[in-house]
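Holo prediction. Input below; ligand is 1,3-dihydroxyacetonephosphate.
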Amino acid sequence: VIDKRRPLVAGNWKMHKTVGEAVALADAVVAGVGQVQDVDVLLCPPFTALWAVSRRIEPSRIMLGGQNCAFEREGAYTGEVSPVMLKDVGCNFVILGHSERRRYFAETDQNVNRKARLAIECGLCPIICLGETLDQRNAKETFAVVGSQLEGCLQDLSDDQVRKVTIAYEPVWAIGTGQTATPETAQEVQRFIRRNVADRFGDEVASAMRILYGGSVKPANAASLFEQPDIDGGLIGGASLDASAFTAIVNAARC
Ligand code: 13P
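Structure of the complex:
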């Protein structure tokens, strides 16, 4: 049983940055935290900038991820990007089931489950996003919603497949709002997630799994979140677009 997992800090750039802007940001992140040993650092640029960013971060320890992927390897799926293609440009991770994809692009737990299985087959580690809306929180449905998302997304995965999965708890009301969950609130849900994983896949899988927090993480609140026992790093949106803020957040995750 692992006491504390190696932290992961991931920048989700969402739909920001042209290739030129992405390269400049990647260079600045490499200069800031490119050789950090005790935290895994991940950049998730838009698809169009993946290859260019991949070249820039190659000499560093920084890793690359996609923000979504297709549920098939290849074929007539206009507009989709295969996990094989993500792997090919140097990705080791892929974000799946982000609340923005659930809200605007009809992503379902069933879809996320299918994508996660294929991503793992293709050698990618999925970062599966879960989280309740404000209405659901106010109706005291947080645990029911997060529990059911977790169940659906991990449906029929083997223990070995689940070992490749990172979970990101991202309460929808905290994303891009400046309203961060308190460390205690995030910890409470993340402990619930880990217990749930332990019930289904055993203590060993659960204690090794990284569970990230996402939602208005900033340099000023990062350390208090990351010191919680079940918060193993962060999925950073807005603050990841600023190299000095992102660098400060990575440094807050160092032991
Ligand atoms: P913000 O950090 O901008 O709130 O975004 C969080 C997020 O959605 C990361 O995936």
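The chain is about 45% helix and 15% strand. That is the main takeaway for now.
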